[in-house]
Amino acid sequence: MSIGLNNPKPLEGLRVCDFFWLIAGPACSRVFADWGAEVIKVESSNRLDEIRQTGSWPPDSMRSADSHNGVFNDCNTSKKAIQVDLNTEKGIEVIKRLIAKSDIVTNNFTGERMDRWGLGYEDLKKINPELIMLTMPVMGTTGPQRNFGAIGNNVIALGGINYAMGFPGTPPTGMGPLYSDFAAPYFAASAILAALYHRDKTGEGQFIDLAQFQATASLLGPALLDYSANKTVPERPGNTHPDFAPHGVYPCAPATHNSDRWLALSIENDLAWQRFTELIADPVLSDKSKFATNDLRKTHETLLNDAIANYTSNHEVWALAGKLQDEGITAGVTQDLSDVLDRDPGMRVQHFENLTDLAGRVTYTTHRQPVRINEQTAPMGRAPLFGEHNYEVYTNLLGYSDIEYAQLVAAGIVN
Amino acid sequence: MPQNNSGPLADLRILDLAGESGLFCGRMLAELGAEVIKLEPPGGDAFRSRGPWLAGEENNPEASLYHLHYNVNKKSVTINLLKPEGQILFKQMVASSDVVLETMTPGEMDSLGIGFESLQEINPELIYTTITPFGQNGPLSQWSGNALTGAAMSGLLYLNGDMSEPPNQPAAEQAYHMASLVATWSTLIAIRARSTKCVGSRVDISVQEAAAMATVQTANANFYTWHGELPMRGGMRHFGSRHLYLCRDEKWASISIRPVRWHDFVQWLNEEKIEPDLTSEQWSDPFYRRDHQDEIEEAHANLSKKFNRDELVRVGQSRRMLIVPVNKIDDLSQHTQLRERDFFKEVTYDNFADLKLEHPGPAYQFSLTKPPAYTRAPLIGEHNHYMYSEVLNIATDRYDRLAIENII
Lengths: 415, 408
Prior knowledge:
The complex is a heterodimer.
Chain A: H1 3-6, E1 15-18, H2 24-34, E2 38-44, H3 70-75, E3 80-84, H4 89-100, E4 104-107, H5 113-116, H6 121-127, E5 132-135, H7 152-158, H8 180-202, E6 206-210, H9 212-217, H10 223-230, E7 247-251, E8 262-266, H11 270-280, H12 288-291, H13 294-299, H14 301-312, H15 317-326, E9 330-333, H16 337-343, H17 347-351, E10 352-356, E11 363-367, E12 371-373, H18 390-397, H19 402-410
Parallel strand pairs in A: 1-2, 1-4, 2-3, 4-5, 5-6
Antiparallel strand pairs in A: 7-8, 8-9, 10-11
Helix pairs in contact in A: 2-8
Chain B: E1 13-16, H1 23-31, E2 35-40, H2 65-71, E3 75-78, H3 84-95, E4 99-102, H4 108-111, H5 116-122, E5 127-132, H6 147-154, H7 174-197, E6 201-206, H8 207-212, H9 221-227, E7 244-246, E8 252-256, H10 262-271, H11 286-291, H12 293-306, H13 309-318, E9 322-325, H14 329-333, H15 336-340, E10 344-349, E11 355-360, E12 364-366, H16 384-391, H17 396-404
Parallel strand pairs in B: 1-2, 1-4, 2-3, 4-5, 5-6
Antiparallel strand pairs in B: 7-8, 8-9, 10-11
């Protein structure tokens, strides 16, 4: 009955002509590639995806290659890669051949780049009426600011997340991760899959215009609705919760690998609070006149947080979180990267997979797709080298003969 | 081609049992045109007790803005799943549905006799999607969790803020948003597998793993496996500079200068006579820049102080610099680009004297399958009659009895 046992590739048979680059786009097409679609990453023969060359690098002996960056390899698993010079007539002919055989075309260029190549949706639907095309510039393809440039950290700021974070009285705070680069692609994947559902029923393709700005602004919870209803501009909440206390992070005893240790703790009702105080038997926190009810704890929140911090700072964070969870209290470790990889009892095995490069020299610790379908995760292949699948795609899929391929190479359409 | 106004997922029916971690998934599916039926216990679900509130309506379960936001475009049906007759009715609903979405502790639905396996007997093509703190299986699957601990356990929380302060929780429960986003696309993958392979699926999302996806760059696992490095808070430095700067009008801008624009940026600084001077040759070397962030940040800060925010953004963008405003809620509400692109959707609340509220809308526009107009979030059990009488064909006398016995 299950696809998990007999077909771990539910998107097999779909082909994506993928112009995505940097992070947000490739993180979307990775979903399709890992779950079985043939995703063909298109790079210019003059200019490769910049993210191949920036970010985390393996030890220096590997530096010569263009594709050993950890981030690139985490966002482009299971894909194929080809080169095309799109600034030539021949290159456009090549890519149109590919698009005619594709189900989906994706890009995250700003402005009218695709249209200038003659690859806008109105052009492409003439050669492939069932095509689904998604474009996801930061601002969308319409409106007065459609040509604004921005990357992940800008988009978080634009979308209102920075301003809503941090402690009261401090400047707006950054989110460490370039969050919108990882949220926007999941909106994109959802939209494409929804359009596929419609196409499978009706044979109708369509164009999807996704604005990463809008994706991010839609992740603010009820804040925009609250502004519409009540004109509320909320204070930065720090780590507090609007409805209950305690809710926050509390310092724990230094560990040998890192002295910066924090317990995340959230106690939502008086019953859980009672279990908590009985467990830790701390004289200050046991004071019923100050802390017995949620209203009291909210009133004395600073005092409460100081007393909890005083208790937690003598305890090792993993042991304390486990002890609290045994009593049904919502607690967790504010994990650093070594916790995630070495100390969390499930993540290394469940969530990460080691992939090895073509030469067998570099091992990438790669996130799996964060979901099990019928208890199976997506089967991943390593990310492609620059132009790795040129010959295969040009000859087998696009039907160029060996002689024609050689001519394309000679003309500089392919390297 | 004629456009339709029912959205790309029209004709899918979702039974949405989700609590907070999955509310946004149902919201997305409803936005895409699916019929999303929020199943609530008689009296209403706990999310209706969460603020913020419509002013003057505090603690009214129909006026929780949290509820209105996450459940817009959904229907509401009340059902008591703890009672045998409620479980039978639920199974009848499952027979005509495509997806069940739930967020209970692993095993809880099974213990009520309405877990995946028993539902699959009724509807072999059912997609059964769950969101739990740590997934259905694994060593921590029985641990409790919420958005804060989800962010903490994923490695996301540790990266936010500055080393001089504790890790900052992400604004607006992002661990739950990530889980809901993953649930949305993975449910749709399972739907596609069903249409081509004719089988149902169990889709299992862990909040911890979903939130961990946001760390792919800043805390790329290979920093640690290759070099033993631990990315810390304020960790923007390895790739750029801290990017929020105060402008002359006390508003904030976010600035990222890509390496390919470095020389243009220096030229601009020079024209504006910004200190310190970064024109000498050594600054062309990206590794030198990486090791001398303080001077670069000082130049950013001095440039920003010279302009009002919107002017800095305008001039910067015209010079192809990545400079955008750090928007507050009121900035967003009035934002020209969002207004121009019809991001805000006006919804009339007939239950509050035809009050008109603007909901933030979708991330995307479809050229063909336009989404339906927004409908207000449902009242508790507002669609009971629709579900029980029209869909399940329950006779009036039984319907009345079910209400009296607090089953619906």
